[in-house]
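Q: I have six molecules that I believe assemble together. Could you output structure tokens for the complex as a whole instead of separate predictions?
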Amino acid sequence: MSFNQPLGGNEMPRFGGPATMMRLPSAADAAGLDACFVGVPLDTATSNRAGARFGPREVRAQSSLLRPFNLGTGAAPFESLQVADVGDVAINTYNVEDSVRRIRLAYQQLLAHRVVPLTIGGDHLITYPILQAIAQKHGPVALVHVDAHADVNDTMFGEKLAHGTPMRRAFEDGLLLPKKTFQIGLRGSGYSPDDFNWSRSRGFTVVTAEECWDSSLEPLMQRVFNRIGDDAAAGMRRALNP
Amino acid sequence: MSFNQPLGGNEMPRFGGPATMMRLPSAADAAGLDACFVGVPLDTATSNRAGARFGPREVRAQSSLLRPFNLGTGAAPFESLQVADVGDVAINTYNVEDSVRRIRLAYQQLLAHRVVPLTIGGDHLITYPILQAIAQKHGPVALVHVDAHADVNDTMFGEKLAHGTPMRRAFEDGLLLPKKTFQIGLRGSGYSPDDFNWSRSRGFTVVTAEECWDSSLEPLMQRVFNRIGDDAAAGMRRALNP
Amino acid sequence: MSFNQPLGGNEMPRFGGPATMMRLPSAADAAGLDACFVGVPLDTATSNRAGARFGPREVRAQSSLLRPFNLGTGAAPFESLQVADVGDVAINTYNVEDSVRRIRLAYQQLLAHRVVPLTIGGDHLITYPILQAIAQKHGPVALVHVDAHADVNDTMFGEKLAHGTPMRRAFEDGLLLPKKTFQIGLRGSGYSPDDFNWSRSRGFTVVTAEECWDSSLEPLMQRVFNRIGDDAAAGMRRALNP
Amino acid sequence: MSFNQPLGGNEMPRFGGPATMMRLPSAADAAGLDACFVGVPLDTATSNRAGARFGPREVRAQSSLLRPFNLGTGAAPFESLQVADVGDVAINTYNVEDSVRRIRLAYQQLLAHRVVPLTIGGDHLITYPILQAIAQKHGPVALVHVDAHADVNDTMFGEKLAHGTPMRRAFEDGLLLPKKTFQIGLRGSGYSPDDFNWSRSRGFTVVTAEECWDSSLEPLMQRVFNRIGDDAAAGMRRALNP
Amino acid sequence: MSFNQPLGGNEMPRFGGPATMMRLPSAADAAGLDACFVGVPLDTATSNRAGARFGPREVRAQSSLLRPFNLGTGAAPFESLQVADVGDVAINTYNVEDSVRRIRLAYQQLLAHRVVPLTIGGDHLITYPILQAIAQKHGPVALVHVDAHADVNDTMFGEKLAHGTPMRRAFEDGLLLPKKTFQIGLRGSGYSPDDFNWSRSRGFTVVTAEECWDSSLEPLMQRVFNRIGDDAAAGMRRALNP
Amino acid sequence: MSFNQPLGGNEMPRFGGPATMMRLPSAADAAGLDACFVGVPLDTATSNRAGARFGPREVRAQSSLLRPFNLGTGAAPFESLQVADVGDVAINTYNVEDSVRRIRLAYQQLLAHRVVPLTIGGDHLITYPILQAIAQKHGPVALVHVDAHADVNDTMFGEKLAHGTPMRRAFEDGLLLPKKTFQIGLRGSGYSPDDFNWSRSRGFTVVTAEECWDSSLEPLMQRVFNRIGDDAAAGMRRALNP
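A: Yes, here they are, computed for all six components at once.
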């Protein structure tokens, strides 16, 4: 079997041709794919600057520079995986709640196939409906969440659905395995002396940005791997051989 | 009586000092004001590019260059009117419907005073709740609407509240006097052979951009004035001498 | 028969979905199409600022705002024509001469079908190979060329192929009907007292920018129409009913 | 005699080579020149946004696109005039008063030759010391001043020297012929009902922007020409044949 | 007693509301405040690029993202301090010397209260008049100066007051305790083999950027603390309990 | 003998005066110079984003901030070397092959003098003709190449001359001493499992970006110095004392 390959720079200049992710072929759905790129252009759940709605389009445009082999890690994904770009979820830009429903449905349709979806956002709220669809298929999951903020607010401006609440919603819905949930890189200013206490009290592992500075990240990654490596491998097997 | 004056460029450089509209004083509410500037930083009802949420802040910053007399028209508003900047409406950036409610309430509070509000947006949906508050106080009103689009869609993406629907909502709620409603500057591409038919069929006067090109706008303005000049004068008197 | 329609803003937000021209479907070639959009991302023939290589991509992205009906002219192209976006010509960004060959070949392939191609450039040199392919099929053609410059230099920096030479090359190759060639909008500074003499001496009609200022363009368009209207209609018939 | 010519785009690409005005040769002083370009990078007399200090550099960079003949007017300056770029005046960016002195001295040195200087600014205050040097040599002069503002303030922030005061200073110093002074394009908002009264009361001819809109500028230019055409011609003869 | 709190993101979106520093209340003067933010929009003492005049406005706008607790350090300033934004000093943008006088006077007025001022600049010259006002009240002070440049030039372009001279002026006026003056981060190119010798010869402690690279800054901060920690604590007590 | 000195910021503000490299004098050729700055504004050999054609102009503009002494290293180049800016090579922006020829010729002319040229590019292809001219004079040379890419492709889009091929061309022409060629900083994605094998197989020393991260670069620089320090010193002597 031969796998989809990124359109090469010697066939079409990198500034031309279809602006799909990594210049991979488009696909109408996830049938027959091992992995798929999918865009979720939602940014109406942000509290300050909007614009991530153009994220999927711009990330794809910039990805035209990527070539198939990673010379640092040796990764050669297109030697053994069938990957395509399945386009964007049609979010409802006027209605956050309906967008959450639309994202969940779109991922349920994707996950009806044996695919691993890779998402291009979009603001952080999109994590919640994606986790809903994943947990519906696979049960609660481990999570490695790299972010400046814990996103565990109960509400923002009185709303349950905002870019600062998805991890709380996911916990409440039982979508996460708390002992296998890592929040890495948390930092900055907050509304209370310790905005990270909620995460810790639910059993999440919190690693602040300060703990990451000026030292190798390898021991941290080893801790993560020890805790969830087996799950990840099993999950990947399950995803690709359902 | 002395009236609020814009902070002069010889008292504080134009790049310093409080960035209120035209460098007028701030006011906590509209009490005692003839006119007030108010910002409505909503942009989550737009269909393409967001960013108008920063409109009130940036319009105010740029307005620091304005001086009190208009040398072309002779207008001298601060010789006879008490004007201040009453700040922004606290819209709910995660929820368009709730924002509409919040804007309506904020204008109801402003209009409890004898003030004429001047709005800095924000996307076009904000016109609807502002008209709701105005009509609640004054009854249906004349409207001069200068825009590229008629904004009379029934729904956008299935939603009744979006930046392309406010004139339809206003008509349905009986907030407008159709014979005294002008839509000026309409142009561009549309979803049907004539997107402006709805407006015309309801009695609005439609003046396309093409009709405005390459000729004086004075005859058009005279038409508008003939139709609604008396109403405007009466309305202004009513607003300022309730 | 039903025709391709632009993807509507109520099906997919305008900032999402495939960034084809006017959100039309993609097509692998011109078979079955009445008209096609094609990008030619060449900018290595420019004498000063490059960047038009990103022109096709960016024009497509901005075209997402277009809707199917032109409300000013009444044009409804997608009611009677099958249109799609056939993507970009794979120009050779390191070699102008080879790019000219590649563009000519690509248009020969397109014109093997009964299609009318609509080009998104790219710098002005691309006009030459496009005219080569068109004249090969249809014979010499009328041309309405709207530009600040006549682009009739013999050479630039000693090169025959540059963005200031395509009209001279086209004339020399007999691709144009000089009596039916209009150059409209010429202006600016030049290398000799009258850079436009060459055009006039070959029989082209030159209309400078100064002649267009401050007056209606309708008489000019009528002149153009009187001279080439029959040819254009015949050409269009020939193109679509070969 | 042969005259300096702009460096041609076929000798050096327009993005390369020395960034002098119009790609003319540099000259250490004005000796032997009929006209010279000179930069005055002062912007510390502006009341709001600075940046014109980079004006001379950027205007020169953009001027690389200019070619020697004006195809609209037929002007061919480099057929009969010796022109060069004499560089920038070393203004004192920390001290407006000293900068005025330095500009005046620099123009006195230039005008010791029979040259006509063409200035690239810089903010509007620089007009004052340039007029000082010109009037010292030629006596009071006619002036055609195209601007949005009259620049006739007595002081700004208590200072006599600012970008809004040069025309007042020039009048007070007797540098202008008031009956031959035109201020064209005045508009906007001001500090008093008529900021232009001062100009009119001193005998200047004021033409507001409103008077220029929507009509040919030829009658206005004819008025200017009738009033000062003879002076201009005489002055030019005097400048070039002292 | 309750302290001023930053306006929360759940009361007013961060892109709306008054653009004060950290969204704190405005205050007309420093009465009753423990600390105050004050803007000094001077940039006419810079030698190259201007623009810092907009610094106070833009820093305030960006500060709208800050929340009251620092999750990394545990700092909770608004639990025990009364803080407000007292606005900008009305500098004279046309006259550096008068601006220095105005800044000194403004800080003398602020320091007539028991407040600690926190300044948003502005170019580096503003340090000099601020130190004048501080030393007038408290006597010579310790200084921790983090900068690429020592700012100890005698003159720039012949001027005593420029953004490269404030530390020299402060030393000459006896405003500093040289043994307790640290200049940290000095680097770059200079006018003589060692531009930092002047600082060292006056007893300042100079720490170059090279000494800071690739190592923890804690030992350096400990050195600073050992030398001036007691003074700082005493000074803070004195400032807040005069 | 006295050496050229950068124009000081106390003689002419840094935003004014001629925009030569480091504000050094211009020179028509390299006669009498120890080192010269030369611009090569070629960017038509790039595979994605163009713009480096403006590199020489912009690097010079920004270099106006440099002063003659490096306070970190103690370097004082203008105490013992005669340096000037010899301007730009007139590349042919429409023809990569001719540009390579022009660059080679320009460097042959420079190297007819005893000068060390310092180049401001421009894209990476320019290294090839520069090395041609250098090797013609000095024989094969050592090379320290710091880049993300090895630039050792055989062809790009079928072309031998492109920004990804110069090191291969240089090797093939025998311009390099492979054992004394270092490629430092290589990283990223590639077209094959190991794009760096070609370099290694020819004897180049490859140091990937990963090997440079999180550690001192001094041991690496010591390795380079041990291998080519003697050659560099000899080459410098040869260049300056031919």
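A: One point stands out. The beta strands of chain A are 35-40, 69-70, 83-88, 116-121, 141-146, 176-186, 189-190, 205-208.
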